[in-house]
Amino acid sequence: MIDVNHLTKRFGGVTAVEDLTFTVRPGVVTGFLGPNGAGKTTTLRLLLGLNTPTSGTATVEGRRFREFGTGLRHVGALLSADDVHKGRSASAHLRALARSNGLPRRRVEEVLEEVGLAEAARRRVGGFSLGMKQRLGIAAALLGDPPVLIFDEPLNGLDPEGVRWVRGLFRGLAAEGRTVFVSSHMMSEMEHTAERVVVIGNGRLIADETLAEFSARSTGTLEDAFMALTSDSVEYRAGGAR
Amino acid sequence: MNPAGLAPPRVPTPTAVRPARLRDLAAAEWIKFWSLRSTPLVLFGLTAWYGYRGWQGAHDTSSRYLAFSPAQRAGFTDSGLFGSGVEWLPIMVATGAFGALIVVSEHASGLIRTTFTAVPDRLRVVAAKVAVLTAVTSGLGIAVTAEVYVFDRAVLAGHHLSFAPTDPGVPSLFVSTVVLMPLCALIGMAFGTLIRNVAASMVAVCVFFLMVPQLFKSPTTRWAIDVGNALPCYAWARLGFLGHGKVVGGETYAGALAAFVLWPLVSAAVVAVVLNRRDV
């Protein structure tokens, strides 16, 4: 269970997240949607204790994340596929993470096998494609077999087989009763993955409902509903100069 | 039932595996440290270079000694590479750079976020990093000091100073030279933590270890003498063979010892406080 209560984060004069309140429950995949710059990544960083909130709270299983001594057995997270040293092998990267949390070495082999990187385990991450790095990040999130999983744009760079695999993985993890929270700026990605959606724009909550309820907001596609809902909060819009 | 109408979950409880200990964190940092190809290469390169310079320095000292008159020989106390403070500046820069990179490389790659997500208790991460950095650079210090000493003994033993391990000043030289390495590494780590940028951190390390000592080489005012004496290279010189007040006048042994204790403590404290509070 993830609880976000009146969460606000300001960077100087810029408000990234403002008075955000929502709950992510276990057993379903919850999509976290919003246009570029809406505050999704900032919210996830606040949740994971990487940034300190200006006000409000973000808790996992009722505790602030930084209260956990070690994190992998409580929350598995993929924030960015690039958050890894390019000079290390995939295996060394995961071995260090596993050891830091007292996890057995066999977990490294198991998750590498699960994400399809077993044969690339000894290769340096610098030679990985974006899709392979996403798989490595997912492997790291799965290392501790945690009850809560958080993924930020996990489908970027994945090939169609990878996208299908990830969707199945997320649904499977949720079906096991885990809390699965997946951010994306693409409604079409969530259409086949999430059962609930939390939508934000300009750092504020716009919607927190089931996908069916969200879909009912528009007579068109889910993407139409998303575009209509977030049109006022799109910060970066192309085509102005032509 | 959960919201999806599923059967009760079979999610593993977080207590199913033994809790991580500080030594697990240190082991994780150890894996990180050695899993980069460049690390063992640089450490081997430094050890080989100082072995070569130690051998060469001992022969240079021997040649000079043999060219002296008996009167000059009586007052001659230089001993190989330990007789040259300048020769030790590169390894101070190198260990400082190691210390900076252990933090900066994580910031530059974004790995710091993965690290702190895996271990939210940042002070434990800092403790593990400090422990590994101290262990590795102390090992480097022991290796380099030992090889330079061995060459000195082999070449100079028959000429002048006996330079036996138990001679006055020799244990102090050994210990201070070994401790100098983690001391410089921790100062570098503090620079890396404060600056966060690879290039700027390297410049800061070079300026601090190479250029700042030059500014305080011949201090004239009281404050300049105090600052100069507190610099790692001059404190080391006072504690080691180059001491006897010959490098920087006025420094006391106790003052140098205090500098050797305070530099690593203050540096580690800076790293802990800044990393514990900073948004990453």
Gist of the model:
The complex is a heterodimer of chains A (242) and B (280). Chain A has eight helices and ten strands. Chain A has 242 residues and is α/β, with parallel strands linked by helices.
Core attributes:
heterodimer; A: 242 residues; alpha/beta; Rossmann fold; four-stranded antiparallel beta sheet; globular; B: 280 residues; mainly alpha
Question: Can you describe this structure?
Answer:
The complex is a heterodimer of chains A (242) and B (280). Chain A has 242 residues and is α/β, with parallel strands linked by helices. Chain A has two domains: 2-61 and 148-241, Rossmann fold, CATH 3.40.50.300; 84-146, no CATH class. Chain A is built from eight helices and ten strands. Chain A has helices at 40-47, 90-100, 106-115, 130-142, 160-175, 187-191, 211-215, 222-230, and strands spanning 2-11, 14-24, 29-33, 55-60, 63-64, 75-78, 148-152, 179-184, 196-201, 204-210. Chain A has a six-stranded mixed sheet, sandwiched between helices. A four-stranded antiparallel sheet of chain A has the order 2-1-4-5, with helices on one face. In chain A, strand 1 (2-11) and strand 2 form a beta hairpin. The radius of gyration of chain A is 18 Å and the shape is globular. The N and C termini of chain A lie far apart (47 Å). The mean pLDDT of chain A is 92. Chain B is built from eleven helices and no strands. Chain B has 280 residues and is an all-alpha fold. Residues 1-9 and 243-247 of chain B have low confidence and may be disordered. At the A-B interface, helix 2 of A face helix 1, helix 4, helix 5 and helix 6 of B.
